[in-house]
Specification:
Layout lengths: L2 E11 L1 E8 L2 E21 L5 E7 L10 H13 L4 E7 L9 H16 L5 H11 L3 H4 L4 E6 L3 E5 L5 E6 L6 H10 L8 H9 L3 H5 L3 E2 L2 H7 L1 H11 L5 E4 L6 E5 L2 H10 L5 E6 L23
Parallel strand pairs: 2-9, 4-5
Antiparallel strand pairs: 1-3, 2-3, 3-5, 3-6, 6-7, 8-11, 8-12, 10-11
């Protein structure tokens, strides 16, 4: 196999509770799901040990030394001693929106390299992903999970399909600024994750959505007023629940159906990018070694 194609899925933090800090890092308790918004990654074998990244779309201006897809490819070659790869990343996940696009690319490149070079070491690859990005261990598997600590503790939960309208402001929120403002204000800490996880696992998404929330929301909307505006716009459509993902700036609403998401999108008149998405479980692709690899799109050259 000389070429592999991979989906690298975005994520939504349905809840984000900040439990404190340890070793200079914030400790989190968060309910997270992957959604069908994704970057598409194409990996082709090289005969040498070099990894070459070509970004298409929003990430085209990311310098190599700051590109997590580059870091993931280089780290994989260093760990497993394989040849390198020419990797093209078609960016669809908005950058700096809290949708986990950077960690998705880490997970996608590592999963794709494993498939490309027939490396079967799931624990080692998850550890490698964890060393490169806090959300990457979850995104190596995807689905629905409760994540704790810095993101390294992942508890998979029974998958359920949820429907979302996501609004992405043009402005970005820097995570370090959102956390710094939260710390300075001694922000209110929630305890939503346990309740939301229990309700979703019990098959009650409507009540679970009432527990969706994010401890960083107040900080983010102060840094970026468009976050608050997007939140109010989504609330006006009477969804099951509304929250912000990550440290922002993307805000999402959960609806009973895709039809209601499309209805709300058709009536939204703001300036944010509007995306209709649903939760997805990559592990449902049970016939493939990697949940990210699209078997029907693989080619041998």
């Amino acid at each position: 196999m000389n070429t592999v194609r991979v989906n690298a899925y975005a994520k939504l933090n349905l809840t984000l509770d900040i439990l404190g800090a340890e070793g200079g890092c914030h400790m989190l308790d968060s309910l997270v799901t992957t959604v069908d918004l994704c970057d598409r990654i194409i990996l082709r074998k090289r005969r040498d040990g070099l990894v070459r990244i070509l970004m298409r779309g929003a990430g085209a201006d990311i310098p190599p030394e700051e590109n997590n897809a580059q870091r993931a490819g280089d780290a994989f070659v260093a760990k497993y001693g394989t040849c390198g790869a020419d990797i093209t990343v078609h960016k669809n996940i908005p950058i700096g929106a809290g949708l986990g696009g950077s960690s998705a690319d880490i997970a996608g490149v590592i999963a794709g390299m494993g498939r490309l070079f027939s490396v079967s070491d799931p624990n080692g690859m998850r550890e490698l992903a964890a060393s490169l990005g806090s959300d990457a261990p979850f995104q190596m598997r995807g689905g629905l999970a409760r994540i704790k600590g810095r993101g390294e503790r992942v508890e998979a939960l029974p998958f359920c399909t949820l429907h979302f309208l996501i609004l992405v402001p043009k402005e970005r929120v820097l995570a370090r600024e959102a956390y710094a403002r939260f710390d300075a204000a001694e922000g209110r800490r929630g305890a939503r994750t346990a309740s939301a996880a229990e309700l979703l696992s019990g098959g009650d998404p409507a009540w679970a959505a009432k527990n969706f929330g994010n401890d960083l929301f107040s900080s983010a909307k102060e840094l970026c007023p468009a976050v608050g505006e997007a939140y109010l716009a989504l609330k006006s459509f009477s969804p099951l629940g509304v929250s912000m993902t990550g440290s922002g700036s993307a805000v999402f609403a959960c609806f009973e159906s895709e039809e209601l998401c499309l209805w709300a999108k058709s009536r939204y008149r703001g300036k944010c990018r509007a995306i209709v998405a649903k939760s997805v479980d990559p592990m449902a692709q049970i016939h493939h070694t990697s949940p990210f690899v699209l078997g029907e799109e693989e080619k041998q050259e």
